[in-house]
Each structure stands twice: as structure tokens, then as C-alpha cells.
Design brief:
alpha/beta, Rossmann fold, four-stranded antiparallel beta sheet
Amino acid sequence: MQKGEDIKSCNPSDLLCVRKLCVWHPIRKFLTVSGYIRALDDVSFDLERGRILAIVGESGSGKTTLGKTILKIHQPTKGRIIYDGKDITFIKGKEIKWYRRELGYVQQDPYGALPPFMNIRQILEEPLIIHGIKKSERIYKVREVLEEVKLIPVEDFINKYPHMLSGGQQQRVVIARALILRPKLIVADEPVSMLDASVRIEILTLFRELQKKYNLSIMYITHDLSTTKYFSDKIAVMYAGHIVEMAQTYKVLSKPLHPYTQSLIKAIPDPDPRNRTLFREIPPGEPPSLLNPPPGCRFHPRCPYAMDICRREEPPVIEVDGTHTVKCWLYG
Ligand code: SF4
């Protein structure tokens, strides 16, 4: 595929447009490469301005690698990443600095993400200093963003160190740091998975409010499909380095097409005691090794509907109703 074709196929309403993205990590033995871990293979999706795309899947599905590749922490092996109409796949130097200013990153572990030897003011000022914001503006911006994440009164928090805050307060600081340069895109990798259940909804509600206020686009990476109903517009389901299903959130949750998505949805705990069963249906078996994935459909060893063709040939991505795509021979 030509570089120009990739850009042409992106819609101006999309902030991020990813085409046939591959990330293969080489396995080296002495001086030779003995194989590749195919962490991402042929991943394509669009993220509209002001929308939230949830990337869901089990550990090892490639969702964190995808987030880190968009953040330019991992280098793509092949494919294209188009951000705001510009091809940023292999940018370097000053362009990386520009691109990083456009992005915010919210990590899973708030305590690990915050340097313990810096207080909250220093943590929030750091990105402003790196990007050359004048000292007179910096304190105003720090106070403003602390108010936005509801760490108020600001005086009670600004001089504290991370260990003096609760997990929920630490994650508010992480969100404040991600927002302080007014990015257009946020990559949020399991932003609430390490918080108590009671705090999760508070943090997601706050995040949603800020997303609407600033018309942010968010890549919301999670293994927890139950939160996507409240916190995403569209879902991409990942399995073993591929996107296997993608559609608007209500479509994926109400009418999942891929057998893997169906089993993930059946595994969501139901709070209604009348619907509780001792064993919820989870996909049997383990995700495959990405060093030596199975031929054909990578889900076939775990799939109750596997056919001969599934064991031989990789399924194509099939458009089922224009906006709902699935990578499965059942629809071919
Ligand atoms: Fe199952 Fe075949 Fe579909 Fe893969 S392609 S999910 S093995 S039915």
C-alpha cells in the first residue's frame, strides 16, 4: 500500500487513522534473528475527533502495545499512523516533541506513574517546563487543572507528595498531568483497574466530563467490557494481535458477532442475583503464543464453532452492516 493511499482513505473528521499497523519484536540469538513476536498484526481503525474508542481484550491481546505504538514508545514495523492528517509513523526529533504535546497518557498504576520525590506542583509543572511555557503562566495552569480534576481546595494538595494521597486522588493527578498541555488525544491504559470499585465510577465520570469539555479523543484500553457501556462510543476487540471485531459500543454489546466477543460478554459479572450462576462462560484455554501463532484464525483452538477453513486460512475482515466489522469465517 502506498503512503498517499493511506492518507486519502482517512476521513477529515478522524483525528487518528491507523492502517495495517504491525509491531513485530525480533528474537535474537547471538547475531541472528531467530523469529518475531508478532505483538500487532495488520491493525486498522479510525478514531473520530471528540470520541472514545475502547480497545478491549485479555492480557497479551496487543492492546497495550497498540497504545504504546500510538504514543511512539514502540516503533511500528509496518503500516501507517495518520494523526490530524499528518503521517507520523516514522517521525523523529522535533516532530516527536510536537506530537507528544498533542497527546496525553494516563497509566494503569497511578502510584508508579508519579515520581515519589516530586510534589504535585512540580509533577504538573514538569511538562510545561519541557515545552517552554513561561513561569508566570505555569502556576496559573497548574491551579486551573487541579480545579478541573476536583482536587480542591487546591492549597490542600499542591504541595503534597504522591504517597500522601489516596489511589483515587493520585489518579486525578495523573489525569491532570495528561491534560495540562491541552492535548487532543489521550491514551488511557486501564485507568481505573487498580482503584477500588467505589472510586472507579467517580474517576470515569470525571474523565467523561473533561472529555466532553475539551472535545478530546480517547483511546480507552481495558480488559473490563462492563465499563465500556458508560465510557466509550465505539469498541475494538483485540485477540492475539488482531482486531477481531469493531463497531459502535451499543452494537458490540447488544449484538456481538465474533465468538470471542460473545464469550467476553457472557463473562461479564451480572449484579442481579437472579442471573448469577456459579460458573460464567469464559473462553476456554489460553491466548496463543505470539511467537508461533496457530495457522488460520488465531482463535480456532478455543472456538466452539471452528471449521476446517478456520484451521487453514486467516479470515478476512468482513463488513457486516457498513459500520460493524468482524474477522471471522462465519460471516464470509
Ligand atoms: Fe471461530 Fe472460525 Fe470464526 Fe475463528 S474464523 S472465530 S475459528 S468460526
